Amino acid sequence: MFLKKKKQLLAGIAIGGMIASTGVAFADQNSVTTTIENWIKFQFNGVEKTLPDGYNVLNYNGRVYVPVRFVAEQLGGKVDWDSNTQTIKINSDLQDQIDEQQQQIEKLKDQLADLQNQHQVSNAITGSGVSDDKYKIDDLNVSINYNNNGEMKSITINGNLTNVSTSSQRPKNIHVILYDANNTSIGNQIYPFNSQLTINESQPFSIQIFNPPAHIHHYTVRVE
């Protein structure tokens, strides 16, 4: 098939390393004989794509030429023709995609760091139960709920209360006192228990404290 080079091969690029580094120079008066081979298939990242109507795959002098716009757009690029400078301009947003993915990676790193920090804070807050001749408090642990800003939204103190006396008991309240690193009281919470405990009977308890002080260091739990 006899084609005008400037108009017909303008949208062609060489694939498969088949085009020589010198390329083929064309002027307005030059022409070449080529064949159309639209049976050739395209795969982009393993996904097969169909060549749209109006596009052709050309074979010239043993080299295959494909439509640059079709290929570039499948790879996320844009193609423009500058008639003033006779230039095909191919621009890709690949770097933008890389930058966006990098930002997502950094965000995930920050979230992971926050989770690690929250875990460390949770483990750093220690507690002790004040036991006497009637009650034993043990199995204490604390869990922390954070808001979107990484600030403590609430803490939950879990434990176990056991009647160690020689008769049934009905504890009225469980009192939690929060302390800072200087052992200064910075908050407290009273949890109504009010359940009958027979001899050696144990019951778990869970006390939630909303908007706790950020500098909690330790806590104590006692029965009232």
Multimeric status of the protein: single chain
Rg, Cα atoms, Å: 37 Å
What do the pLDDT scores average to? 79
Shape: rod-shaped
Second rung of CATH, namely the architecture of the largest domain: Distorted Sandwich
Give the CATH superfamily of the largest domain: abc- transporter (atp binding component) like domain
Contiguous helical run count: 3
CATH class designation of the largest domain:
Mainly Beta
Summarize the amount of helix as a percent range. 10-25%
Sheet having the most strands: 4 strands, antiparallel
Ends: how far apart? 99 Å
Organism: Collibacillus ludicampi
Keywords: Coiled coil, Signal
Protein name: Copper amine oxidase-like N-terminal domain-containing protein
Pfam families: Cu_amine_oxidN1
Give the SSE map.
Layout: E1 2-4, H1 5-8, E2 12-14, E3 31-33, E4 35-36, E5 42-44, E6 47-49, E7 58-60, E8 63-67, H2 68-74, E9 77-82, E10 87-92, H3 94-124, E11 126-130, E12 135-146, E13 152-163, E14 173-179, E15 185-192, E16 202-210, E17 218-223
Parallel strand pairs: 11-17
Antiparallel strand pairs: 1-3, 2-8, 4-7, 5-6, 7-8, 9-10, 12-13, 13-16, 14-15, 14-17
Protein name: Copper amine oxidase-like N-terminal domain-containing protein
Keywords: Coiled coil, Signal
Pfam family, one: Cu_amine_oxidN1
